Amino acid sequence: MKYRVMRTSEVLRIAAVSAVLACATAWVCPAASALDASQTVKPGDATPDEIFRSANKSLRQGDTTGAIKLLEEAAETGHPGALWVLGDHYRHGDGVPVDNAKAFQIFNEIANGHADDSPSSPQAPFVASAFVALGSYYLTGVADSTIKPNVEEARRLLKYAASYFGDREAQFKLGQIYADPNSADRDPTEAARWLTLAARKGHPGAQALLGQLLFAGDATVPRRPLLGLMWLTIARAHASGPTDDWIREMQEEAFSVAGENERRQAVKLSQEWIAKNQP
Known about the structure:
Serine Threonine Protein Phosphatase 5, Tetratricopeptide repeat
């Protein structure tokens, strides 16, 4: 079975969707434990945290225009959560025109101001995601701006998020970079290392790419078909929606050439892993 890595455009499209899901989780979950509130407050009498919570509530109610105004107010104080969500709106054109140069500027402000924040702090998910966003921009560059493709800088930013903050999306992206067969810096051993870290944290894309790498093997990565099938099956169980079709296709391709005994064992191992690691 030929080792296959998705084309760059496909990788970035899937990574963008993953980033949206990751940011929603970071915003609603990790930060929510410290910032949650059920009532909207009057902005003039509110702290940055309270304004951010009000923006959160407005978005939940479908008032994107009102939420953007609140996010801008909180962002002016340097609130990392408000900055991140505002940057993500500009990145995806949600309630505002798409403006990747502005999004880059916002994410850069977060990274510059909070790089040394504790990985256990409430704002850490936003800071880590800002580094991931910046790394992603440097992989492709930003049209009509001075930001040009710079893989070395992308790796530097992603490694910081992956190592210091332990961000699984950054670990996944590093795995993609090192697994890219078209890259002069391709390093399957390094790819397997980063993908393993993200896979153990439940990242479906990392689980799928790690599974494929182990199933096929490489000159520097011994072939381990059973373990590869296990990760591919776990990834498929976590896949959801049409953006994860590539995961299902990858798993089906491996299963089609595996032996019956391997398939049975892989399913058993995947079920045991999921049961043990269920959130």
